Amino acid sequence: MKRISILTLYIASLAVFLSSCSKDLLDQNNPDAITSEDLWKDSKLISLYLNTIYGDRPGWDYNFYDNIVDDSRSNWTGNEPNNHIYDQWLDSDVGGYTAYWKYEEVVRINDFLANIDNAAMDEATKTRYKGEARFMRAFLYFEMVQRYGGVPIITEPQKITDDLNVPRKGLNDCFRFIVAELDQATAELPADAPRGRVSQGAAMALKGRVLLYWASPQYFTTDEEALYKDVETISPDTQKPGAAERWEAAAKANRAVMALNKYDLYPDLTTLWIDKSEANKESIFEVQYLKGYKTHGLDALVKPPFLGAGDGGQRFPLQELVDAFPMKNGRRIGESGSGYVASNPYVGRDDRFYAFIGYNTAKTKGNKGGVLTEISLETYEGGRDFGNMDAGNTMTGYYTLKALDPQNINYSYRAGSDQPWIEFRYAEILLNYAEAANEYMATPDNSVYDAVNAVRTRAGITVPLTYGSMNKNQMRDLIRNERYVEFCLVERKRYWDIKRWGLAEEKLNNVKYHSVYITQSEGGWNYSYPERDPRPLRFDKRMYWFPIPGSELTKNPNLQQNQYWPLPAGR
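Structure tokens predicted for Membrane protein:
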């Protein structure tokens, strides 16, 4: 398969490179050391250099972004997610999962792009490599802007004699730079690329996401000097003067990906992340793994202790997420005609619910004594998978099933799983398009209904939305709920959606979320829904933007700190 061949080539090239190193080739006193000139004369070393840039892309993380919103909770009360939701941040610096000041990686890509034109290889390969590196640089800048607002834009290798104290660029200028980079990358990239490599479609998908953010309330500002949107003015209003043009641009960018006719929704949500073949047309760009070389720990992370392997206690879905899944007829559980029965709450839900959520009596598989074992979850009081949260049992009454490999028994703490991290999938393109189009149109047209219906039909919903049945506000609410359930848990989108919509104070401040408490009775099950969070969550307005790391502010006196975050001592 192409996927395996790419990874094998990478591993083989690394092995050849290392096996030739009887001495330290990076030692400049070593006459055999590889110089920069040597690197750009050797196509294999250039390919290896590009692979290191690919290797910098983050994939599966441990538990952070899912557990700080209304998706799920972590058992381990002293870890970063639980610190974050109660605003226990360090003022001068933010580390761990929130830190994303990636200029070391920018430096590497700048060096690559500065030298590739003079490399010893054919022009077509050079052009493709430039497109791949440019995509990666645009992605790095977008994720920094996503967190901090405007950041320094550095595109050339810096010399020690240069002024290294580069100030931040305006928020809008940063977005324009990223979009221009992606347009150029699209022109440089091939239309087709094996899974795991960047194609034109991947660059176009990232552009669609970038433009969606630029139009969203957290990022929309007409102040060209602004480094960030003033947190006092962030609100859920999506219709500020000038916003319609940005929404339309986002809709067109996502529509362009749809028009490629290269991607499609994968039919089975239980195997979407397991099928690594070229037949899986939903994956647009992904970070790949391969057992024996590079793995992650998703399967171990969320298993009940009975099937555990040195990990667990993470990503327990909240009741609010469970309640958000529609019924098979497409109605929400509280809507008239939904067919929802409170005494039997897990019957008749859409297919995503059964693929993503481990509820009481749901079946799951895993390692028990080295044997693949199937169990029915017992999350009721007194059940095998209930209570003793210190051991990793659920704290909400639910477990995560999404993206798990049901045949894997080799998982362990942060290792043993090799499902790809699908960064862009076609469902996002459809919902990005639907959201952006709905926002710039006076009323949603048929194309908005078609995009949403495609996602819902794949989810097993049997009654499509009727053209013209919803106004703009109703469609907005529905699309946002679709994003909530479609991308829930392991895909790490909910936190950024809530913030970009200007809803963080509503969703993440002075609220408590809920779990399910189930007891057995002679007639079946009894359900109640107690508060899960021990105290109200806290979201201070300043948290819309992460603080510039204090260590960077100390090194660069030209950096301005974000609103309401202090400067480090000495600044």
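The CA atoms of residues 38 and 63 lie 42 Å apart.
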